[in-house]
Write a structure and sequence with these properties.
Layout: E1 2-4, E2 22-27, E3 39-54, H1 62-71, E4 75-85, H2 91-109, E5 116-123, H3 130-143, H4 149-155, E6 164-172, E7 175-184, E8 197-202, H5 208-220, E9 226-227, E10 237-242, H6 256-278, E11 286-294, H7 297-308, H8 311-319, H9 324-332, E12 344-347, E13 350-354, E14 357-358, H10 361-370, E15 375-381, E16 387-394, H11 398-405
Parallel strand pairs: 1-6, 4-5, 8-10, 9-16, 11-15
Antiparallel strand pairs: 2-3, 3-4, 3-10, 6-7, 7-8, 11-16, 12-13, 12-15, 13-14
Helix pairs in contact: 1-2, 2-3, 5-6
Length: 409
């Protein structure tokens, strides 16, 4: 899925290579079945600030360990990603393999190894076939192109149905700024990140601290607002690499330019987060859960997350069963103080509950039509305050069970 925001200027190269000075490639190196791309490389012409957000799972894959270490310097120039093997739960051997691939890319590019970041996605617990990756790196470097973004996006896919990429532009401080990105994620998708990899590039000039703050805020409004199945993986990573080639005045926190950049990055993150939901394993519906009227933002998020992760709600979505009582039950068990007589609930703009009571069969027939839509909003009002939050969730289908029952085969 490729999305480009319309601007008065000519469309840039798509996806991760849309910003100035970025090239990418994707090849088959032998991790996955013949014909399937499984190794991607993204390179900037010059080094620059890099920001990262990672899984909150305490069992982390080797690439996450390496990236967290490299992020201490906050400078990057290349990102190497493989699919088909997560390199997680592989001990010292897996960590050595991850470091070796980063070191080799750095050696070929004549840059410090700490400027190379890596990612892996696939089956957990299998030793990374590092020799295949090593053999593939020269081919990757030879095929680098500013038109290689699509191949790179394909090379990081696992059970994803299609490559997901984005390219957005805005004028900030009198200079045209571009953000490009790609992401994969299909199952094990849940707040605090998931079996999800997302990579962004920008030609903006921005400080390391401002880039990290912007990425953290953007992720909280996007990738941390989606749930497909309630599982959080070992490999989740979001990176954003800037190279300053737009030659704008350097963006710093607390400025108008920073707010403009944050809006652009958040839009890019949200677009890819929704693409991940739509591409989820067995997904047939994507639903936005909007919760308003809580005493705190944390309470709103808790209610939204409880609804979004309820298997009874998710299966009702799949079966197009307008069983609004399941949503009410999820609200009640969210652990947030509520006054039932103040509750309101609507589906796709159609009221179903007011003052804590259902509106009858006519309303049920109306929301039954909403449940047949591929995308709609469930709006919850608690009447307890002025705060709000939202999450995107998906249905839980027969295909989800089929895919995950035989994932390794």
């Amino acid at each position: 899925m490729s999305m480009t925001k319309k601007t008065p200027t000519a469309s840039p190269p798509s996806g991760i290579t849309a910003p100035q000075g970025f090239r990418a490639a994707g090849i088959h190196c032998g991790i996955k079945k013949p014909g399937l791309l499984d190794l991607a490389l993204v390179v900037s012409e010059q080094s620059g600030p890099i920001a990262g957000v990672f899984t909150q799972n305490q069992v982390v894959a080797a690439p996450v360990i390496v990236d967290r270490l490299h992020l201490r310097q906050g400078i990057g120039q290349a990102i190497l990603v493989n699919s088909g093997n997560a390199n997680a739960c592989t001990g010292a051997k897996g960590l050595a393999a991850a470091k070796k691939t980063a070191t080799l890319v750095a050696r070929y590019m004549s840059i410090p190894s700490r400027h190379v970041f890596i990612g892996s996605t696939g089956v957990i617990g299998r030793v990374l076939p590092v020799d295949r990756i090593i053999k593939g790196i020269p081919q990757l470097l030879a095929q680098l192109s500013d038109r290689g973004g699509l191949d790179a996006a394909r090379a990081i896919m696992t059970t994803d149905l299609r490559p997901n990429s984005i390219a957005l532009q805005d004028t900030i401080g009198g200079r045209l700024i571009t953000i490009g990105g790609m992401a994969k994620g299909s199952g094990m998708i849940h707040p605090n990140m998931a079996t999800m990899l997302a990579y962004f590039t920008t030609d903006a000039s921005i400080t390391k601290s401002a880039l990290q703050q912007a990425l953290t805020l953007a992720v909280n409004e996007s990738f941390n607002c989606i749930s497909v199945d309630g599982d959080t993986s070992t490999n989740d990573t979001v990176l954003c690499l800037a190279n300053g080639m737009a030659e704008n005045r350097t963006i710093k926190e607390g400025t108008v330019a920073f707010r403009r950049f944050l809006l652009l990055l958040t839009e890019a993150c949200q677009a890819l987060a929704l693409a991940i939901c739509r591409d989820g394993e067995g997904v047939t519906k994507v639903v936005n859960i909007e919760v308003t009227g809580t005493a705190t933002v944390a309470q709103a998020r808790q209610v939204a997350q409880t609804i979004a992760t309820s298997n009874l709600v998710k299966t009702a979505l799949f079966g197009e069963d307008a069983n609004w009582g399941r949503v009410m039950a999820a609200i009640g068990r969210a652990g947030v103080p509520i006054t039932p007589s103040k509750l309101s609930l609507s589906f796709g703009g159609v009221p179903m509950v007011q003052r804590g009571m259902g509106l009858g069969l006519v309303a049920e027939r109306r929301i039954a039509k909403v449940f047949r839509k591929k995308e709609f909003t469930i709006a919850v009002g608690l009447g307890q305050g002025r705060h709000r939050a939202h999450m995107w969730t998906t249905d839980l289908s027969f295909d989800y069970v089929r895919i995950n029952a035989s994932y390794r085969s």
